[in-house]
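Take the subject:
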Amino acid sequence: MDQLIADITRIVHDYTDQGPLTLTEVVQGDRAHVKVTAIAPIPEVLPRLVADALTQLRAALEHALYAEVEHLLPRPLTDQEARTIEMPAYPDQARFEEWLAHGRRRKIPPVAAGGVLAERIRTLQPFQRRDADDHPLRLLAEHTNLAKHRTPAVAATRLGAVYPDRQHPDLAVALPLERNPQPGHGLPLQPGDILASGPRGAQIELSILPPVCLQRPHTGVWNIALKELGYLEDWVRTTAIPILITGSRQNTPIPPQLDITIGHSDLRRALLSAGTMPAVERGNLSIQATMARRDLPKILSMPPVGADPETVKAWVASLDDARVVRTVARIALVNSDQKALLNYLGELCAEAQAFQKRA
């Protein structure tokens, strides 16, 4: 699962890093508009991999539930009983009570009304929250029902944000969710969309973020794909499965980074040494590091520092992602203090030069 989400993160990163939007400037009278003329198609594999990841997350819940029923029941399940073991996801309590009252299911003590496992399942139901449509179990059920029965996950490129490099009183930028009057239902980007409008002749650089998003089948809301996957993966791993097995989430979280491409003679021991940073977090760190590796040589080669860009590039390439991101973050932190900024940039140049001498 973790590796699959890591693969999705890499594909999304590669897609957005190429600059999927083709833009042009259109002049109308005394105004100039930045207009979208083309959008690179999302790789066909992406919605399929997202659907696979969502299906595996739901399967993990179903498998944990089935294993717990087998553990708690002092006898083997019959074939007919086994077919009734499933993870329900109901937005209202009445339908959940109907699920509990199912003819064969109610005769299986762990999942019968009042049974220990039935109450754990009740705790995880969408109706336990006021915003049942946004409950992670509801999201997971709706996404996987769509992927299994109708179509792969619905993904599209949307407008995340437009950031000008400097403020201008007469600059207007598009907001992500203004294309539809219903809050939260912003549409994907389309050729012809205007992302910014300003006075003719004004030179203002813009940073435009076009994230890949998933549409929630039951509400039509679009959410950033990696955020949706990260949210659901975290809930299944740190909340749903622990509650199904122990009745509480107050346990050591299941680590996400277990290498399942190799066999483990002692799975418990392997889990103790598994990595704890989820794939989405690692992917976000990698994206930040990619941008930081581009920015650092430019920053350190500008006056008054004036370091050799190639020396800095070689040094930056030797640093791990976390160090590169921390370095750029600290530059931003001390940016308002000229003396502190120059001192820190000087330290970085000295480190880069020392690396070059050792190489």
Remarks:
- Strands lie at 21-28, 31-39, 155-157, 161-164, 172-173, 194-199, 206-209, 212-215, 222-224.
- The CA atoms of residues 285 and 321 lie 7 Å apart.
- Confidence is low (pLDDT under 50) at residues 177-185.
- Residues 1-276 form one domain.
